[in-house]
Predict the structure.
Amino acid sequence: MITAQVEPWHPTIDEIKPLLHGHWEELALNKDKVPLDPQWEFYDARDARGELMLVTLREAGRVVGYFIGFVAAGLHYRTCLTLTMDIF
């Protein structure tokens, strides 16, 4: 059975990092022009401000999928929080 849940950025990202390269290989376009090189400090800063959402998919306790999004006021609607997808 696969479960979905919101989880904290730290320490969960350490479980996700080993999966990134394989997922990038499978899904990314233009790999020769756009190398995988996450700006972890940006993610850490957004998390520290409460602006990052991490959802994991787990099977038998093991991370098998993830969704990362950023929560912030909408650019057109200052009073409305919106979630912008980063990666799934």
Notes: Helices lie at 9-27, 40-48.
